[in-house]
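Summary for the steering committee. One of the milestones for this cycle was to obtain a three-dimensional model of the protein with FE2/S2 (inorganic) cluster bound, which we needed before selecting residues for the alanine scan. The sequence and ligand used are listed below.
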Amino acid sequence: MGSRIEIDRCVCYDVRFSDLKRALDERPRTNEEIRAEFGCMDCCGMCRPYIERMRETGETVFHQILIPQDA
Ligand code: FES
């Protein structure tokens, strides 16, 4: 009870969303460039919806499960 999930990174590559956001604020990158440089989204891909939400809202810590959307 009272437990709360906290998702703050790409777990496959141990990249914090806050660090990724800082890098993107300095120089915007496409998802392909993020994959090539940081690895994120290149393994299980579960970080992709969080990175997309981060791009939209600036959030870097999430408390809900976001499901990857295929398209
Ligand atoms: S959590 Fe980012 S590729 Fe798996």
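Key point for the committee: The longest helix spans residues 17-26.
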